[in-house]
Design goal:
mainly beta, 7-stranded mixed sheet, 11 strands
């Protein structure tokens, strides 16, 4: 069972990317619900999360208004729409159903 992210890449500042996450294997036990990121030399941080029960969302203050998290309970997928990207958003982004299930990450690089 694993979580698989996709959609990372290189984009210029001000651009957009959409990250996706899907659970493979025995998907019924895993509900991806959060995106984390880790930049080189920095600690991992929670970027956005969504409640699978009522859709309540949380955003890191520096991405509020630029990023949108969404989940599909039927397909058991998770997405992160990232707009107005900044160089400081450069990091490896991880999909998670914390604390036990994590993807391997997808690299997002924002050039200035």
């Amino acid at each position: 069972v694993q979580l698989v992210e996709s959609g990372g890449g290189l984009v210029q500042a001000g651009g957009s990317l959409r990250l996706s996450c899907a659970a493979s294997g025995s998907i019924f036990s895993i509900k991806p619900m959060a995106w984390y990121r880790q930049a080189p030399g920095k600690a991992r941080e929670l970027v956005a999360a969504i409640s699978r029960s009522d859709g309540t969302t949380y955003y890191l203050d520096t991405v509020e208004g630029r990023f949108t998290i969404s989940g599909d309970n039927v397909e058991n997928t998770l997405s992160l729409q990232m707009n107005s990207l900044r160089p400081e958003d450069t990091a490896t982004y991880y999909c998670a159903d914390p604390p036990d299930y994590w993807g391997e990450g997808t690299l997002v690089t924002v050039s200035s």
